[in-house]
Amino acid sequence: MPRGPGVTREPLSRERVLRAAVALADTEGLDAVSMRRLADSLGVVPMALYKHVSDKDDLLDGMVAIVIGDIPVAGAGASRRWRAAVRETILGARTVVLAHPWARRAIETRTLRTPAVLGHMERLTQLFLGAGFSADLTHHVMHLLGNRIWGFSPELFNETPGKPEPVKRRTSGEPDPQDYPGIMLIAADARARRPDATGCDEDFEFDFALDVILDGIARLHRSKWDSTTRTVRD
Amino acid sequence: MPRGPGVTREPLSRERVLRAAVALADTEGLDAVSMRRLADSLGVVPMALYKHVSDKDDLLDGMVAIVIGDIPVAGAGASRRWRAAVRETILGARTVVLAHPWARRAIETRTLRTPAVLGHMERLTQLFLGAGFSADLTHHVMHLLGNRIWGFSPELFNETPGKPEPVKRRTSGEPDPQDYPGIMLIAADARARRPDATGCDEDFEFDFALDVILDGIARLHRSKWDSTTRTVRD
DNA sequence: TGACGTGGTGTACATCGTACGCCTACCGTC
DNA sequence: GACGGTAGGCGTACGATGTACACCACGTCA
After folding, report:
1. Which residue of chain A comes nearest to B13, CA vs CA?
2. Domains of chain B, start order
3. Gap from B101 CA to C24 C1', in Å?
C-alpha cells in the first residue's frame, strides 16, 4: 500500500510493536505470531520490525514483559504478614497470566533475564527478606516456588479445555486405559466430585499446591532452618 | 549415494529412527533434530522417516518415550515406605532426564498422552494409592509434584552452565543490578557458600523442594486430609 | 546546501515440515 | 514360474519461517 503524500501513518515504536504482538497472540495464539503476520497486522513490511526489536527472541521477551507489567504490586502495607502478601502477589500474577493463554508457554521458554521478569522476582524476594527470612532460605524458597511465582503449575493431565481432541493418527500405539488403573481411578474420582467439568480443576490444584508449599515454608521459617544443616525436617 | 546391487542397507524402523533422533539431540541439541538432519544421519532421504513416524510431533513423543523408558522402576519391595519409594522413583527419573539435556524442554512441551509418559505417572500413582492415600489426595498430590515427577524443577535464575553468555544485543534495556538488591543479596550469599560454583546448585534445590513437598504430603496423609474440607492446614 | 541519522522498503536466502507420486523389492497365492 | 499387493525408500515441490543486506525517503542540524 503506497502511502500518498501527506498521509503519514503514525510511526512504529517498540511499544506499539509489542502491543500488537500481544494482541495477535491473544486472538490467534502464540504460533500465529510470526514476524510476517505481525508486520501485516501493523500494515508494515516484515523487516520494519527489526528496527524496534532485535530479533524474535527479543520480541517474545518483550511480550512477556508487557504481561508481567500488568501484575499488580502487592499492597505495601508493612503490617501485612509475609504469607498473605506472597499469596496475593502470586495469585495476582496468576490472574494476569491466565488472561493471556499463550503467556504460560512463552514464560516457560524464556531465559528470564529481562527487567520485568527480574522485577517480579525481586518483589517476591523482598517479601521474604522483609519478613526476616535469611538470604539462604529465601533463595531456596524461590526455587521451591519455581514457576508458581508466575501463577501456573505445570500441566499434567491437561488438555486445553474445549478442544475436541482431533484424533491424530500416530505411528505409535494408542494407550490402553486398562494399563493405567490408578490414573483411571483418580480420574473417575475427580469426575464424581465435579460431574459437569472436563479436565482438572486447575484453580483448586494451584491453590492446594501453593498452600502446601507455603505451609512448608512457614515451618522452615519458624524452625530457623539453615542450609548448613542440609535437612528439612523440623 | 546410490547403493549398488546386493548392497542392502539394514532397513529403518521406528526404533532405529527414534534412537538416531535421541543420539542426534544428545550430541547436537534438540534444535538440531530436524527431519532433514535426522534423515542425513541415517543415510536416508527425509521423507523416508515418515514411513516410521507420523510427523515431527510423533517423533518428539517417541524420543521422550525412549528416555522415560530408561527410568528404573522403583524396587518392588512391598515393605518399602511410600516416601522412600516415591523419592527413589523421582530421583531415578532425574538422573535419566539429566542425562539428556534436551529432555526437559521436550517433556515440557509435549502433550503427555503417550504410554511411556502415562506409565511413569501410573507407577507413581500406585505408590500413593498403595500406601493408603485416597484417590482424591493422590490426584492433588500428583499435581503438587508437577513436573518434579520428571526429575526437574523449573529453571529460575538459570543460565545453561558453561555457556559464556554471548552478549546478545537487545533492543530492550539491559537490567541494572542496582534495581534488584534482594536478588543480588541472595546471589551473593549463594556465591559465598559455594565460591567455585557458577549458578545455583540445582541438585540441592531439587532435593530441598522435593523434601518440603514430601513433608507436606506426609502431613496431609497423616491428617486424613479430604478435599471436601478444602483446607490444607493440619 | 549538504551530510547524517532514523525508520520503512524490497529482494534474497537458507531452512523447515510435509504433501504427493513414483519405483523397487519382496511377499503369498495361484 | 506369473502376478498382484504391500512396505519402504526416493524425488520433487510448496508454502512458511527468521533475517541479512542494500536501498531510499525523510527530518534535523551544521
Report:
1. A171
2. 76-156+187-234 (1.10.357.10)
3. 41
